[in-house]
Amino acid sequence: MIIAPPAQIGASIDEIDTPALIVDLDAFERNLQKMALYVAKTGVRLRAHAKTHKSSDVAKKQIAAGAIGQCVQKVGEAEALVNSGIQDVLVTNQIVGAEKLRRLAKLAQRAKIGICFDDRSQVRAASEAAVREGVRIDGYVEIDTGMLRCGVKPGAIAAELAQHITQASGLTFKGIQAYHGSAQHLPTAFERRAEISKAIAFVKETQEALNRVGLDAKVITGAGTGTFRIEAESGVYTELQAGSYLFMDVDYAVIKDESGHDYSEFEHSLFVLSTIMSVAGDSWVVADAGLKSYSGEKGPPRVHNGPGLSVVSMSDEHGKIAVSQGSHKPVLGEKILLIPGHCDPTINLHNWYVGVRNGRVEEIWEIDARGASR
Amino acid sequence: MIIAPPAQIGASIDEIDTPALIVDLDAFERNLQKMALYVAKTGVRLRAHAKTHKSSDVAKKQIAAGAIGQCVQKVGEAEALVNSGIQDVLVTNQIVGAEKLRRLAKLAQRAKIGICFDDRSQVRAASEAAVREGVRIDGYVEIDTGMLRCGVKPGAIAAELAQHITQASGLTFKGIQAYHGSAQHLPTAFERRAEISKAIAFVKETQEALNRVGLDAKVITGAGTGTFRIEAESGVYTELQAGSYLFMDVDYAVIKDESGHDYSEFEHSLFVLSTIMSVAGDSWVVADAGLKSYSGEKGPPRVHNGPGLSVVSMSDEHGKIAVSQGSHKPVLGEKILLIPGHCDPTINLHNWYVGVRNGRVEEIWEIDARGASR
To answer: In this predicted complex, what is the ipTM?
Structure first.
């Protein structure tokens, strides 16, 4: 079934059908520019992560603001971006399976494509796909930075894998993928700094091992919204992969900054607009957005500008909102904005962003990589 | 972007692209038949809930097996079903907003449509929409069964709302919506029985109040997979709204039955097929399915037939699987089946079910109401 946009350009907020994914364009643009300015100042490059936004429209805005390209997790995401004209895409993890590698190699006929490795057999498989399609693909060695997920051990083992990439037809050894995902959400700046310091040491160790075998990682890529300044100022990382900075979410709002305050480097610009569908409860109301409009694994969304209102349970299509004593109890049909617990999987539930400024719908962007998990 | 099916009919399991939503057709059909037989024996009717399966193909199988129609939560789901020829759809909650009510009334030109109320103003709004489109819509009073979400208080207040429905042009008062969602997942059969007993008492109280004002609820509708036998055997409920029974999930697997054993009334028939994408870790592997392929708010999925394997962290597109000492460590490219934590929001992430029997893809069903949250 085709899902139509929930509003037309020019509509007022009240005319937007709900649930709808809303972007506060002023806040979004401030976030976009703030990161662009920071990156320009430090000299690292931004390769923003499309797994967050899942939209060629948003990717183009990042590139227009100076990003050198995009990161993705999946071939399907890369296809959406390249089909819309994006020219430089790095798959920030492993792609396993001959058919997926064939699709990726096909994309390399039209764009610069990179892929990460943490296993020799995968180098061979990607090389075969590249040769078959007559392309070159950039190969990155992913090292385990301490997040204990994908990636080989830093140092000699990583350098050995890089040699395999160098020797493989159709592949160009380009650099090191050194992303530390779990560090992004550590509660204090001290903990985040400690974890990323270890990651930086692992990168240095790997760079030295590469040099010993006559190789050099031209690109060191990693970092997310919670730690990007640390990587950028390390003197080691050359590319940042942040994505959530555009939108932010409750998961990022609860971590603390260097001063111990709530992390407010960027503003909440992403919301789920929801309509109050039931006011029969004494001390609660029910909104028409649930687990199919926002992801719940990081906890419930927050009510934006809703003092005394808190989402206390999430059903498939209902959100129950407790109204504290003395607070305004929303009326039937009233619209509220919810700040999602976790932006990436929330966006993946929707087909359209509705961009709003001064209470009017100004832009509608397609989430063209929604569901592109293959 | 159009998401193509992850396999073709006739393919082997190994040829299915991942992540993919898999249905074990044998288990699915046993679940379908088991509920159909039970319902036929007790004399209650099954109005299965499409919010679980989101697919006209699945709805038609339920109806072919004896279900009298379907439940939905959203107008968009009702549209998908009616467009595919389903003739009897009950919206099991409130629909707020003139445009949504207009769409619903339009559907009533082609199918039997019901809707729930817990507010007088909504009765008026639905009546206006029905009159405008020249249709009749069945109206149900939703009572709060003790789950403290939507619904008016049982008894006189509910009867008063029923009178409003009776008096409203274009609406036919049909019955009582008395679903208790949170009771479905209470850990013990004793707790579930205690909660549903209260719901049954609330229904009786409401039926008596209706009779006092000369009304009669012809339909008492509710129940889910965790409690349906209690409602069915109450002598009060006439329709069951179960949905998850077709597929099951970890959330249902952890509750206990009357004997204190794990709840096994129905079999797991729904899985997310995933490929091992990284084996670089010492004591873990990483699969290519994360929060964009299964919902995580009820906890991680379980590895099916994977002794010693447990999903220990969920990222957007990664699932980290710990391998206990002495267990088989999956190899790169190996495919594993994951039992989702919560079936409904998991299904809503996918566009296709891949039906498998004897290791071969036998059927592919479209999830045509995926994302139909408006």
So the answer is: 0.97
